[in-house]
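question for whoever is on the cluster today: can someone run the full assembly for these? two chains, 364 residues total. i dont have access anymore since they changed the login thing
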Amino acid sequence: MANQTTTQGSRTTAAGGAATASAAPTPVVTPLALAGYLLIGMYLGIIFVQSEVVSWFRIQEMFRFQSFHMYGIIGMAVVVAAISVQIIKRMGLTSATGEPIKLSPKQWGDSRIPGARYWIGGTIFGIGWALLGACPGPIFALLGGGVSVLIMALLGALAGTWAYSALRSKLPH
Amino acid sequence: MFENLAGPWPWYVAGPLIGLVVPLLLLLGGKVFGISANLRHMCAATPAPERWKPAFLKYDWKKSGVWNLTFILGIFLGGFLAVQLIGMPDAGQHISEATRADLRALGIQDFSGILPTELFSWGTLLSPVGLILIVGGGFLVGFGARYAGGCTSGHAISGIADLQLPSLVAVLGFFAGGLLVTFGILPLLLG
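^ ran it for u. tokens below:
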């Protein structure tokens, strides 16, 4: 927790907020900003469906290395996001709602197994991703698209999140 | 209505459009693109007695999560609009013939929709295979995403775009798990 130092430094954070990155007092999210998040989500949901990244078939095609489609999508998304982040950082831009733009570095953790949470947790996630053929975003897009049985996948994912939360202190991170 | 936009949208269109979500969220409210955090917010928001909740689920989810929950409500609505206005793409028809041949060898015959209904439907949910794929897969997605501290959006896109080495390790894990399922578990499960 000590590594969550911010440059603002004027306020002491309340104890216990271990994982949340927002040290500064967060202004109430305005309805206008919420409308913005809703619109960006709708934009993304439409792309998710029409580019077929929500498809179990496409995920199989990716893990079998039989098409460039998924690699091209993730790769181009990373390139555009990386360039955008660099521009935002170098120009020192602030957000429309006045909140600071900062990406907190991911921590390696203090386990005796280096980076345990990333490769163990990542592998567990990958097993689930390939079985279900959908990661969290596509679960919501498919539900909206009418694939109602995925509500059971969402309930499974919530149970998994709850199980992790209960076991968290016993797992290497 | 917009059927002429019917996909599959090519990777060089969809990829950059998805990448733009990262600066849009940063510039709107300094928010980092990461969808699986919502699973934690939803657990934290569950009206269960506080003493049942692990410490990890006791936090002010309204303060940290309302923006993101609104965002995924948008993804849900976007999925709805995409299907209503353009139509659900027949991904099974669009994937490579090699993948169809491999899946046929595993016993899949119906390539008509977005996903194989022989495996994913209310009818298969209570079969061992359906239960493992749908509920088991969902469980591991939820468990693994929180353990790894992110999913495809938080690690593969946001994390790698910010040149975070832990995110690269997580993505290598995603692939290790995916390959294990594709070449090890699925043949056992479906074969």
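summary bc i know u wont read the tokens: Chain B touches chain A through 131 residues (CB under 8 Å). Residues 125 and 131 of chain B are 5 Å apart (CA to CA).
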